[in-house]
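In response to reviewer comment 3 from the previous cycle, which asked for concrete evidence that the modeling workflow produces usable outputs, we include below a single protein chain processed end to end. The sequence was submitted unchanged, and the resulting structure tokens are shown without manual editing.
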Amino acid sequence: MNLRLTWVQPEDLVGHELRQAAEDGRDVSEIAGRWRAAGGPDAPPAAGASAVPAEPRLRSLALLLLDELDSLPSPSARNEPASLAGIIAACPDWPGVTPAEGGPTSLTDRLHAAWLGRAAGCLLGKPVEKLPLAGIRALARAAGNWPLDGWFTAKGVPPELLAAHPWNRRSAPTSLAENIDGMPEDDDLNYPLLNLLLLQRYGDGFSTADVARLWLDELPAARTFTAERVAYRNLLAGLEPPLTATHHNPFREWIGAAIRADVHGWTRPGDPATAAAQAYRDAALTHTANGVYGAMFTAAALADAATGRADVHRCLRTGLRVVPPGSRLAGAIRTGIGTAQRYADFDTVVDRLHAAYGGYHWVHVVPNTALLCAALTHADGDFVGSVCRAVSGGWDTDSNGATAGSLAGLLAGHPDRLPERWTTPLRNRLATTVGGFDGIGFDTLARLTADHVARAPIPQEDVRA
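The workflow returned the following structure tokens.
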């Protein structure tokens, strides 16, 4: 049997690490020359794709070069601190506390809308994940669905266009308008479930090691991707955090940690600093620098939205307060917001962002966060506008749609304020391989999440908020 695992083969990782080095300012020209002289490939065009056969000579060289690449200091570290203390010190406007509005019932309603919003936004993006921007636009236009305003469909789309831009193979059978029947499994929903388990099992004071223990107990390795799969491999090899995030892990600044951050924000309404600190401890298992900041940004923005007092623009400003201002991610957030404010046509906004960040991999946190912030800003808090803009901009479509839906759902404040055409197809049913949750309803998940909030300390008002 010829079994080749993706995401972890050394000869596949070198190209990605060379790309990461170019992004964070390391001079790896000599290492790159040795790799290419030996016939080593560039980064595979699709993340996880096996670019080369398992040749022993090339694998040995790859392991050697990955060690050398890991040891090279990054010039960007001056503006992108690694420790939580360093991040806080770099952020001059670290947020305080704002009490939430309403009582437990109001919070449960907001959380119900957030769970539904996350699912709907993710489901919208699933069939076009990995497709180029031009393909997404062409498919939607052919169905009379542009600007994007509803589920993708194959009805009315010419066969030659479907052949040129095929739907995501795994997602199409469960995520096109004509065949949606409940929320199918997706890692963008698995991780919130895992983090709900994390808080139930270990409490708000969980450690990064506790995250690792939970994963080993509850998360099948085959349900992990990119940085998460590398970290999982590192755990099984006997490495401990933070080495799990840094050892031979070229995906450490991709979007994976950001898609795990929702529960940390949802359960700390009005306390974005604590939400960001929890997201940091979670993210540190798998990510560094901008990969970690993406999780902190998301958690802080959602914590502000969970109060019932904020609008989308304040939420984004709150999230930015926990991101080191000199970092690449902070620059991307400011660019996404500013570009959305500058142009009335969202296609123009997207084209500008793709011109600015098209050199990054489509799963990297920097371009995706820029797009997320642009979509939320341009939609001005509207739920449908938020998820459709986030997905229509390409890159990591299901992840961006999920996070946009989460925040816009919180801001909507109640599941009945989300259009039925987006919630009814979900059938109040979530499929998952996370133990004990398969088939669970979003109303039940909202109650479980609110129950944890009720047991947590109540944030006290802080003048810094």
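Residues 209 and 319 are 25 Å apart (CA to CA). We consider this sufficient to address the reviewer's concern, and the full set will be provided in the supplementary archive.
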